Predict the 3D structure of the following.
Amino acid sequence: MSLELLKDLCQLPGIPGREEKVRKFVIEQMESHVDKVDVDVMGNVIGFIKGKTDKSVMIAAHMDEIGFLVRHIDDKGFLRLEASGGFDPRTLIAQRVKVHGKKELKGVLMPEIKPKHLQKGKEDKVPEVNEFFVDLGMSKEEVKKVVRVGDFVTMDRGFDKIGNSFTSKALDDRAGVYIMLEAIKQIKNPEFDIYAVATVQEERGLRGAIASSYLVNPDVGVALDVTIAADIPGTPDHLAITKLGEGTAIKISDSASISNHKLVDFLRELAEKNEVKYQMEILPRGGTDAGAMEKAQSGCPVITISLPTRYVHSVVETANIEDLENSVKLLKLFLENVQSGDFRL
């Protein structure tokens, strides 16, 4: 396993509906490890590995990251934004961004607040997301030559290894794409057909997975995503959801799907038998592509393998290297053994 691949994935720009650079990269990484690669009308990348039976398993990880669209250019050349995905405005103050117009521009992201030196009394309320703007350091006339309404904006932050972990923007969900790519590289002669799907527009309502899972109509579905690791100061243990370094997470439920309990037991037993470190996850808010696969056509049993991640939906999302490795191991084991499970209720 190489973190360079994950770094490359995280640095690519791709908000919901504008995943083209990520898609091109994923196709290049996938095509030598699958029998066929297709792209559907929504832009989902679907890699196919032929199995020995007529049963199929779909694994889904989304390519998009949260970001913004330019909705207005004001008289001073500042860009006003429309969020595409769920931001916590407390994490956005004094950040840098990239504006993907006719050429790529770097900018400063700030809210409509007075400098501290000019404030009188209490003026330190948390701004709303729609109060943020981008400063490109250019006049309106200069900006309009290269930026249009509808161009997209991504956060600007690098990928770094820190201790036994790594931090970056867009781990949600380039880490899931990475786990999928690393697992399918190791699969030989599977029993089930495998559809490895890099989905689009997950951050705007699982839209890509809805379309691709109707097309694939799998017998079993596995989503790959990050999950909350609130194992930090200020949060009691019982609210942590997961913890860094405690292993890959087997999801029991979230607000978009309820994992098939037989699949939960199957993954837990696989992990224990093969000494894969794992933890259990119940996420009260948030969902994954499993919520779309679960309802496709006549439905199918689904589950999510999650990477515990601190500071989700920020530019410093942080995860543990061993948790990442264990996520790849568990997915590989599942794809090699899925035929031995009975997930009918």
